[in-house]
Automatic annotation (TrEMBL):
Transferase as UniProt keyword: yes
Record GO terms (molecular function): identical protein binding; protein-tyrosine sulfotransferase activity
Lineage: Bacteria, Pseudomonadati, Pseudomonadota, Betaproteobacteria, Burkholderiales
Domain of life, source organism: Bacteria
TPR repeats: 10-43, 44-77, 112-145
Protein name stated in the entry: Tetratricopeptide repeat-containing protein
């Protein structure tokens, strides 16, 4: 019988820590690295590894502290500055992240990733010229990395003579020699660039190819997702919402902006965040995290939530869930006492609208709506981190139809005054009228600054970062559409009822 012998030296503990981290045994990895730290307190590598492990555990403040310690011990290490930039980016401290990435590119050589990440931060901060320059530097250093081209063309309208577009066209001639991921990134980049140039048919050809390639690498269980959507109305019907109302946390600060991606939710948040009493927190998955924590508690814990028994939910279960959400999102709000409302525009909160209402009965919802075909084609034109259903037109249409059915249920089941719907097309046509309606819904006084939302300086960490810094024009409603036969799977997925409703709406 053999025994797993204890490591004898700090190097052995370091190796074991790396092996444990690789296997996902993070607590054990931390313990190993701590032994190394005690033996070698001046070794920057162990602090860096502690930070990286804590990152994988999503313990970001602790990770930042460890990276800072690594930086103090080795201030000229580009990798450490890159890691600092990344953790600061995750914590939405983008100005500091830019400074760390800038230090990384000053110290390192192959720093294309630092330039790319710096550009992403600069774009979120609205510093577009600096972002474009950083993207170009990333491309110069790593001209075969297609994700940099995609990021760049999505941030800047292309021209025929732009060196980036010229390079893309040359690379596209040899796309078959690339890895599948690089091929997909290239096709999305070309699709976006050609759309800017008005070459829409060619653009959509590339988008079809890019989506088909990317779909192969994405895990998406359509049956499970649609079953979940179909299950929600039975668990949280109007009677349950009425019987359990008022048991949750009393906070009135949250405003949840829900809906499909690309529906105009970023614009709605930018308008509201232009009000001095509103903090725009962006897309925060905090309610989902609070829900997972509530479901995972031990059976002996009175605050443990049973998702399949919401008819029997108690204040001891619902109030802690709401309070945990308020605590989590409050961490992101500097000087929280200044604000009456905090907006959370994580679009997929639409799934949990009923449960959020029970956990936070005084929260308000704004449902961001837009033409279903417009939304789906916009989603189809981009790669998103958390949209696994967006790369097949049929799946995309069926997802939208299930989302629409669920939102119809919430609309009918929620008490009056809890949720309003804002149609993007109506917002463009009557900005002031809709802004007044949203402010009144949130219990806020009128403020002219909400009409000048494009002048508001704040972080915007979504694909709409550049659009919300421009005034609204009707041209934003006039999207080119491919030939019907090319998008027939989308039409089939959406179904005749949604298409007829869109036709009637367009006809006025």
């Amino acid at each position: 019988m053999t025994h797993d012998t204890q490591p004898a030296t700090a190097d052995d503990w370091f190796a074991r820590g790396n092996a444990c981290a690789e296997r996902g045994e993070f607590e054990t990895a931390l313990a190993c690295f701590e032994k190394v730290r005690l033996a070698r307190p001046a070794d920057p590598g162990v602090y860096n590894n502690l930070g990286s492990t804590l990152v994988r555990m999503e313990r970001f403040p602790e990770a930042l502290e460890r990276y800072r310690q690594a930086e103090a011990l080795d201030p000229n290490n580009a990798d450490i500055h890159h890691n600092l930039g990344w953790i600061l980016e995750q914590m939405h401290r983008l100005d500091e992240a830019v400074a760390s990435y800038r230090r990384a590119v000053q110290l390192g050589k192959l720093v294309d990733g630092s330039y790319n990440n710096m550009a992403n931060c600069l774009q979120s901060l609205g510093r577009f010229d600096e972002a474009h320059e950083a993207y170009r530097r990333a491309i110069e250093i790593a001209p075969q990395s297609m994700v940099y081209y995609r990021n760049f063309v999505q941030s800047k309208r292309m021209t025929l003579d732009d060196p980036c577009f010229v390079s893309l066209q040359k690379l596209a001639q040899h796309a078959d020699a690339m890895t599948p991921d690089n091929q997909a990134q290239l096709h999305f980049a070309m699709g976006h660039a050609l759309a800017d140039l008005g070459q829409n048919d060619r653009s959509f050809e590339h988008l079809l190819k890019g989506n088909a390639l990317h779909r192969r690498s994405v895990g998406y269980n359509e049956a499970m997702t649609l079953d979940l959507f179909g299950h929600m109305p039975g668990l949280l019907n109007a009677d349950v919402l009425k019987d359990k109302r008022g048991l949750g946390d009393p906070s009135a600060s949250p405003v949840f902006i829900v809906g499909m991606p690309r529906s105009g939710s970023t614009l709605i948040e930018q308008i509201l965040a232009s009000h001095p009493q509103v903090f725009g927190a962006g897309e925060r998955p905090d309610f989902g995290k609070a829900l997972v924590a509530a479901l995972a508690r031990s059976e002996a814990d009175q605050s443990k939530l049973n998702f399949d028994a919401m008819r029997h939910a108690t204040a001891a279960q619902l109030a802690p869930l709401g309070a945990d959400y308020v605590r989590r999102i409050g961490i992101e709000v500097p000087d929280a006492a200044r604000y009456l409302r905090i907006t959370d525009k994580y679009p997929f909160n639409f799934i949990n609208v009923g449960l959020i209402h029970l956990a936070l009965p005084n929260a308000r919802f704004i449902h961001s709506r837009r033409s279903p075909v417009e939304i789906c084609l916009s989603i189809f034109s981009r790669i998103f981190q958390d949209v696994p259903f967006g790369y097949d037109l049929g799946e995309l249409g069926r997802y939208y139809r299930a989302y629409d059915a669920l939102m119809t249920h919430w609309r009918e089941a929620l008490p009056e005054g809890v949720m309003i719907e804002v149609q993007y097309e109506d917002l463009v046509d009557d900005l002031e009228g809709n802004v007044r309606r949203m402010l009144a819904h949130c219990g806020l006084d009128w403020d002219e600054r909400c009409l000048a939302f494009h002048q508001t300086e704040r972080q915007v960490n979504t694909a709409s970062a550049s659009q919300v810094r421009k005034p609204l024009f009707r041209t934003s409603l006039e999207r080119w559409r491919p030939a019907a036969e090319l998008i027939q799977p989308l039409y089939d997925g959406l179904g005749p009822a949604l298409l007829e409703a869109e036709r009637k709406r367009a006809a006025g």
